[in-house]
Amino acid sequence: MKGKCWKFGDHVDTDQIIPARYLxxxxxxxxxxxxxxxxxPSWAKKVKKGDILVAGENFGCGxxxxxxxxxxxxxxxxCVIAKSFARIFFxxxxxxxxxxxxxxxxxxxxxxxxxxxxxxxKGSVKxxxxxxxxxxxxxxxxxxxxxxxxxxxxFARKTVVKTALRTKK
Length: 169
Description:
Elements: E1 2-7, H1 14-17, H2 28-33, H3 43-46, E2 52-55, H4 67-74, E3 79-82, H5 87-96, E4 100-102, H6 104-109, E5 115-119, E6 124-127, E7 133-135, H7 141-149, H8 152-168
Parallel strand pairs: 1-2, 2-3, 3-4
Antiparallel strand pairs: 1-5, 5-6, 6-7
Helix pairs in contact: 4-5, 7-8
């Protein structure tokens, strides 16, 4: 995937990602309209499908709300690259099918507006127009399959259907 980067700092918490005042809905489009509102009030209007969010340390700290990765994904973000993720956000991102990549060196080197190429399967990030390429261990195959399926529930449904079809034969 290739996209324009939006850069945020360290310790961006779930209230900055999707403020609590919008948690009365689970509608992804409504959540997307308010994504990152407390960090940058105009961000949701500027972000484009395929863009990449880049952050510092402990991205997604705070509450365990799944609304946070859902809002980012629904805003059109193709991937989040960070120095590190809060553990609950990390798991919620996988469960909701939001591609994430923990790569401190890339998160540090990328500037807002940079175009980057991300290969999740290889765990690589390349800043377009430069020789800067970064690598990090890719997710295990099973986690990559969950993300590719669009999240844990979609992966589980797909797996159950495959199993049922094999059992019927």
